[in-house]
Structures are given as C-alpha cells and as structure tokens.
Amino acid sequence: MRPWSNGNAANRRVVIAFASDPDIVIRERLSTGADRNVIAIEIKGGHDVSNIHNRVGDAEKSHQKAREAGFVECWTIINVDRFDEVKLRRESPATDRFFRLSAIAAQAGPELDDFRSRLRSLTGVRE
User: Fold this and answer.
1) What pLDDT was estimated at residue 64?
2) Where are the beta strands (DSSP E) in the chain?
C-alpha cells in the first residue's frame, strides 16, 4: 500500500506508512531531506483478554527497536476494552500511550479525541 503524505503547519511533508515492525510509522520530512521519526504504532488485534500480556510484550520489543531508531512517541492500539493500564505500562515501559481499537473505530468519544489531538500535536497536521 502506498504511504499517505501531506504537508503540515510547517510546510513539511508528513508520511504515514504501514510497516512490519512497528505496524504504522509516521515521519516528518525535514527541509534537508532527512526524515524525523515521530510516531511508531503497534496494533495488537487479538481480542482474547487472557493473552493481552503476551501481545503487549511483543509491542514492547517493537517499541524498543523504534526508540533505537529515534521515534519520539510509541503507541499501542489494543483490541480489548478492559485492561489494567498500570500493569500494561509495567510490561511495556516503551509504550507512551495505549488506545483501544474500539474507541478509535467508534469515530467519536474522548479517547478518539485524545488520539486525534496527540496525532495533530506531534505531526503538526491540520484537520
């Protein structure tokens, strides 16, 4: 799939691309032509609550690699609605934010608003 790109408030190109590890990468193209790694997103689609800790452990490994590559933020989107965020943060300290897939897919609500707000803030992309 072709990456999506658009200009941001600083007139720099922001590229959003599907990748293998992490699943989604968001980069800003600087005026020098270099890329600034902004957000690495892992998506853990399994909905079995009992296996969430294994999936979050996999996300942690991916986020550690992303941190080494210079990503500013690392997010994990999970497909379970109830979880102990304190415990998940201990299991994946490299993850800055956990978002629920159902909250993003709902296309309305405070968690989606937070996701969008943080995305815009970090990338400078206007609505």
Assistant:
1) 94
2) 4-7, 13-18, 24-29, 35-44, 73-78, 97-100
Q: Which of 111, 40, 113, 101 is nearest to 70 (CA)?
A: 40
**What digits encode the pLDDT tens for the residues 64-73?**
999 999 999 9
Among 73, 84, 81, which residue's Cα sits nearest to residue 105?
81
Q: Which of 23, 26, 1 is nearest to 120 (CA)?
A: 26
Q: How far apart are CA 51 and CA 19, in angstroms?
A: 23
Location of structure tokens 């405070």: 110
Q: Tell me if residue 58 falls in helix, strand or coil.
A: helix
CA–centroid distance for 43 within its chain: 8
Domain ranges of the chain: 4-123
Residue 24 in this model has a pLDDT that exceeds 70 = yes
Token pair 């294994």 in the structure block, residue? 54
How many Cβ atoms are within 10 Å of 60's Cβ, its own excluded?
Answer: 18
